[in-house]
Design goal:
Elements lengths: L10 E7 H12 L2 E2 L1 H9 L3 E11 L1 H4 L8 H20 L3 E6 L1 E2 L5 E2 L3 H11 L5 E5 L6 H10 L3 E6 L6 H6 L2 E4 L7 E2 L4
Length: 189
């Protein structure tokens, strides 16, 4: 992985794996991500064409909490999630959302890997740089396709401690979010 120079005329698209980033910030730093600062940091003096955040509606919003869950708890969860989604939009992110999948055996699935990959491939011809904000190693084939199949510069931004090493190496540039303290918002004590 070589670090590429940034130029003001570069057109940038950002694709944010919110689940991955949210849980990394929470588990590593007991904090939250400042998405407005994240976008500012990643774009720099380049031209932002599109920034998309991929979110999953939780159980509190789609009504699949156990029936005995108090209505106030369900309402609080829904309001909190709605406020979070609103904050993402206010930070300049376009939201793509889907419902949490709950299977008959009680297992749950919630990821946007394929949707995020398809969107990045669709946008590749309209931009100069694709920035994937995720540490998930499942995106390595996407990075390789975008670089070698579509001829794009690909940056990956994540917290180094929770990012796949192979993903970091596959990217043209890895942006370690741990090095920008304004991206993490820690709770006030």
């Amino acid at each position: 992985m070589a670090v590429k120079a940034h130029y003001p005329n570069q057109r940038v698209a950002i694709f944010v794996d919110v689940q991955n980033l949210y849980h990394s910030a929470k588990n590593l730093y007991h904090g939250r991500v400042n998405y407005r600062e994240l976008i500012r940091h990643l774009v720099g003096d380049r031209q932002l064409i599109r920034a998309v955040a991929y979110v999953v509606k939780s159980e509190g919003v789609d009504g699949v909490l156990p029936k005995e869950t108090p209505k106030e708890t369900v309402a609080r969860a829904g309001a909190s999630e709605a406020a979070f989604f609103d904050a993402l939009v206010e930070a300049g992110l376009e939201l793509r959302s889907k419902d949490l999948q709950v299977y008959a055996d009680g297992s749950k699935k919630a990821d946007w890997d394929v949707g995020m990959a398809v969107d990045a491939i669709r946008m590749a011809s309209s931009v100069d740089v694709i920035i994937l904000v995720t540490g998930d190693g499942d995106f390595i084939p996407l990075v390789e396709y975008l670089k070698w199949g579509a001829g794009q510069l690909v940056e990956v931004a994540a917290f180094r401690r929770s990012a796949s090493l192979k993903l970091q190496e596959a990217a043209d540039e890895f942006v370690n979010l741990e090095e920008s303290p304004r991206i993490i918002m820690r709770p006030r004590r």
